[in-house]
Amino acid sequence: MFHKKNQIKLLILLKNAYRKHFRGYSNKEINLKMRVLNVAEKNDAAKNIAGHLSGGNLQRREGFSKFNKIYEFNHTFHGSPSTMIMTSVSGHLLGYEFQDAYRLWNSCSPLELFDIPVVKECPKDYINIKKTLVREVRTCNILVIWTDADREGENIGFEIINVCKEVNPRIQVYRALLSEITKQSVQRSMTNLGSPNKSISDAVDVRSELDLRIGAAFTRYQTMRLQKVFPEVLSKSLISYGSCQFPTLGFVVERYKDIQNFIPEQFWKIKVHHKIENIDVEFAWQRIRLFDEICCRVLYERCQENPTAFVLKVTKKPKSKWRPVPLDTIELEKAASRKLGINAKETMKIAEKLYSQGFISYPRTETNIFPKELNLSNLVQLHLEDNNWGDFAQRVLNNGPSPRQGKKSDQAHPPIHPTKYTHGLQDKERKVYEYVVRHFLACLSQDAEGEETIVNIEINGEKFLANGLRIIALNYLEVYPYDKWSNKQIHDYNQGQSFMPTGLEMIDGHTSAPNLLTEADLISLMDKHGIGTDATHAEHIETIKSRLYVGLENNKYFVPGELGIGLVEGYDNMGFEMSKPHLRAELEADLKKICEGTKAPSLVLREQIAKYKEVFIKTTEQVEKLDQSLGKYLRIQPVALQNNGQHQSMAIKNIRKCPACKKSTLVLKQKTNSPGFYVTCNGFPACRNTYWLPPSVIDAKVTDNVCSQCPGGIQLIQFQFSPRSMQPHYPDTYDGCINGCDSLLCEILQVDISTSRTSPSNTQSNNKNIITTNQNRDQVCCQCGDGAKLLTVTRETPNKGRQFYGCSKPISTPDRCNFFLWADGQFSGSTHTQLNNRTNNQNNNRHMNNSYRAKTQNNSGHGQRKCGLCKQAGHTRRNCPQS
């Protein structure tokens, strides 16, 4: 009985605690409550979406990132009461990068970047955002992706999904698609959740990986080379390459060269005037112009012989100025650049902010057709109270919205339009919002109407014509001041009438070169040739500006810089036309096929890498043409560099698997800022296993031959030693294995890569970290000729507890030698037995080895400094070979 009472009390306590935790919910809600994690692309979007779903009844709390808040509220999900957690990322959460071993520019040949592994990982700046997602998703059943409904948004969505599924593999995933952040749109999306589209995300992954590989390979190669070829002006310059930015630069250079190469040509024409009172009508020659002065003069003199003009025909017909079609991204960028004086990048930044705040629809769209289901009248009603365009909006409602439809649709988003009225915006935000509103109302209105009059006349056989315009109704022009249309007065002529011109003259002129490109012109060319997308045009233009490849004349016209035109001309001289849009346009076409599911991502990746790799190899073979072209425009004589297939000479071959990490491989590298070579793990900095070769090695390269003694396919290395630095009769050039089988070579080099080590063998331990023993003291002699002392490593390193031999003299003694030998016999490639054998049987060799050892160890000693970058001794951060 007592036991039963205790059970009842315990149940009551648990029930009360449970109800306290879920205070405000019914029993049914407590039993069925789900937790749903919602993730938007930006914090503003998350805030507004959460506000619409919760009706403003929500709680805000902090995540690990101070820029990405968490909004928690109650809602119904698929008919069940749920706790909704809404948060956000800040664009892409993950990004493609090379493995650590290849991130330093000198870590490998640029050519290798086309093939080496890449990883998709979270940048340091976004770790806190990732931590928030990981924490929140652990307790959730459902994940809803609210990122932008375009390619990039789909890819960001899958980045979020991958992070969340790492900690909660069973979570169910849904996709919400939005074109505008309004209450109706958000609620409609919530009730019509779908699934993420992997094909669209794959297209972005392919494009991102290609951009990394192609951009890094060409950027590293041309930067490292041109910094040496033009050290006076480019020694600190980053000379980047991108498969979109280069064709964009190419358009600017092509137009500039068209102007520079343009040869004006003189022409002549006849002009007729007829002035009555203040109206002067000019008649244009039907032949327009002639490039032969004598011919033109003959015709002119014939007109002078009988200058009376006869009216052959008078035509009057209706004339319309068409209202704009619904607004897409490209037209917004172009209009803002031309009419508002705001560049494309800033325009899109403002438009995205207005979208996140719910003022306009999604600004990245290729559609210029309003869908039938969009209630245009309701959108117009929002603006009836505005002082500037409210009356016009009322007339649109009275006549019924009648949009002039375009011809494009991306099947994802409607055209850009206002979704909420506001009058509190300032400066450029107000300008962009006002343009969107006025454009929207204009395209729903009527075309401007007028009457055009065309008069054809004849003077002694030569025909001329003039036209006039009378505007009848401005219509859309009343609300759209960005277009101009004005009356053009003309006299009242009648067919068969004759009159005497008040002016008849022959004038000359010259053909003129085309204008330099404006930003709007450049965007049009990029769109026409498939360079980038509506979402990336502004970014590519900004890149070539920031790299100083182009500049702006009068803050409006693009002019190529010396570096930009030199690069384009250099590559064009090689015959690749890398500044032309063909290569990138082919990729954009393939990406569309991936989105449609008609082409495999792996196939596109393989084909595109092969194309650009071939171009890269041919570039390195003809790179002197690039030097010459840049030298011409920089007005500097290029420094002569040996080419000899430079991409191959920098290539790094694997020697064997690293014995330390057992993941990466050992490679042979040359020191960056000083002569010398070393063998290191290409998993640096995760693995710091390094073997330093002595200064006597003046050249070394990994051969294609494999050691016949060692298992596992260990590559042989060809060494070239400085003259007279080796033992008698030892060759100056020698192919050998340093994996331990060639004991004499390993002893001379003090290297044995069959075992791991993280510091040079000649680094002596500090006396604080060793203890002494008396075991086997006189088995080995140091360089002083005395018996060596057996010591033990006590420092917290991989060698802790390992015994070694050192000089028996106190460390403070000035003539103390730097002798070092591991007691287990693995002295940088030789065993203890091998050393004793040489001591007993090869006295000359022992003498030479000891002399060599003394020479290579005389710079090591107590407390030797270590590099701050790679933590190895023997050099500093400034000349670190890993830098």
TrEMBL record:
<dbReference type="InterPro" id="IPR023405">
    <property type="entry name" value="Topo_IA_core_domain"/>
</dbReference>
<dbReference type="GO" id="GO:0008270">
    <property type="term" value="F:zinc ion binding"/>
</dbReference>
<dbReference type="InterPro" id="IPR013498">
    <property type="entry name" value="Topo_IA_Znf"/>
</dbReference>
<dbReference type="GO" id="GO:0031422">
    <property type="term" value="C:RecQ family helicase-topoisomerase III complex"/>
</dbReference>
<dbReference type="InterPro" id="IPR001878">
    <property type="entry name" value="Znf_CCHC"/>
</dbReference>
<comment type="function">
    <text>Releases the supercoiling and torsional tension of DNA introduced during the DNA replication and transcription by transiently cleaving and rejoining one strand of the DNA duplex. Introduces a single-strand break via transesterification at a target site in duplex DNA. The scissile phosphodiester is attacked by the catalytic tyrosine of the enzyme, resulting in the formation of a DNA-(5'-phosphotyrosyl)-enzyme intermediate and the expulsion of a 3'-OH DNA strand. The free DNA strand than undergoes passage around the unbroken strand thus removing DNA supercoils.</text>
</comment>
<feature type="domain" description="Topo IA-type catalytic">
    <location>
        <begin position="197"/>
        <end position="616"/>
    </location>
</feature>
<dbReference type="Pfam" id="PF01751">
    <property type="entry name" value="Toprim"/>
</dbReference>
<keyword id="KW-0677">Repeat</keyword>
<dbReference type="InterPro" id="IPR003601">
    <property type="entry name" value="Topo_IA_2"/>
</dbReference>
<dbReference type="Pfam" id="PF01396">
    <property type="entry name" value="Zn_ribbon_Top1"/>
</dbReference>
<keyword id="KW-0862">Zinc</keyword>
<dbReference type="InterPro" id="IPR003602">
    <property type="entry name" value="Topo_IA_DNA-bd_dom"/>
</dbReference>
<keyword id="KW-0479">Metal-binding</keyword>
<dbReference type="GO" id="GO:0003917">
    <property type="term" value="F:DNA topoisomerase type I (single strand cut, ATP-independent) activity"/>
</dbReference>
<feature type="domain" description="Toprim">
    <location>
        <begin position="35"/>
        <end position="179"/>
    </location>
</feature>
<dbReference type="GO" id="GO:0003677">
    <property type="term" value="F:DNA binding"/>
</dbReference>
<feature type="domain" description="GRF-type">
    <location>
        <begin position="782"/>
        <end position="826"/>
    </location>
</feature>
<feature type="compositionally biased region" description="Low complexity">
    <location>
        <begin position="838"/>
        <end position="850"/>
    </location>
</feature>
<protein>
    <recommendedName>
        <fullName>DNA topoisomerase</fullName>
        <ecNumber>5.6.2.1</ecNumber>
    </recommendedName>
</protein>
<dbReference type="Pfam" id="PF01131">
    <property type="entry name" value="Topoisom_bac"/>
</dbReference>
<dbReference type="GO" id="GO:0005634">
    <property type="term" value="C:nucleus"/>
</dbReference>
<dbReference type="GO" id="GO:0006281">
    <property type="term" value="P:DNA repair"/>
</dbReference>
<dbReference type="InterPro" id="IPR013824">
    <property type="entry name" value="Topo_IA_cen_sub1"/>
</dbReference>
<dbReference type="GO" id="GO:0006265">
    <property type="term" value="P:DNA topological change"/>
</dbReference>
<dbReference type="InterPro" id="IPR000380">
    <property type="entry name" value="Topo_IA"/>
</dbReference>
<dbReference type="InterPro" id="IPR013497">
    <property type="entry name" value="Topo_IA_cen"/>
</dbReference>
<dbReference type="GO" id="GO:0006310">
    <property type="term" value="P:DNA recombination"/>
</dbReference>
<dbReference type="InterPro" id="IPR006171">
    <property type="entry name" value="TOPRIM_dom"/>
</dbReference>
<feature type="domain" description="CCHC-type">
    <location>
        <begin position="865"/>
        <end position="882"/>
    </location>
</feature>
<feature type="region of interest" description="Disordered">
    <location>
        <begin position="838"/>
        <end position="864"/>
    </location>
</feature>
<comment type="function">
    <text>Introduces a single-strand break via transesterification at a target site in duplex DNA. Releases the supercoiling and torsional tension of DNA introduced during the DNA replication and transcription by transiently cleaving and rejoining one strand of the DNA duplex. The scissile phosphodiester is attacked by the catalytic tyrosine of the enzyme, resulting in the formation of a DNA-(5'-phosphotyrosyl)-enzyme intermediate and the expulsion of a 3'-OH DNA strand.</text>
</comment>
<comment type="similarity">
    <text>Belongs to the type IA topoisomerase family.</text>
</comment>
<dbReference type="InterPro" id="IPR013825">
    <property type="entry name" value="Topo_IA_cen_sub2"/>
</dbReference>
<feature type="region of interest" description="Disordered">
    <location>
        <begin position="397"/>
        <end position="423"/>
    </location>
</feature>
<dbReference type="InterPro" id="IPR013826">
    <property type="entry name" value="Topo_IA_cen_sub3"/>
</dbReference>
<keyword id="KW-0863">Zinc-finger</keyword>
<dbReference type="InterPro" id="IPR010666">
    <property type="entry name" value="Znf_GRF"/>
</dbReference>
<dbReference type="Pfam" id="PF06839">
    <property type="entry name" value="Zn_ribbon_GRF"/>
</dbReference>
<keyword id="KW-0799">Topoisomerase</keyword>
<feature type="compositionally biased region" description="Polar residues">
    <location>
        <begin position="851"/>
        <end position="862"/>
    </location>
</feature>
<keyword id="KW-0238">DNA-binding</keyword>
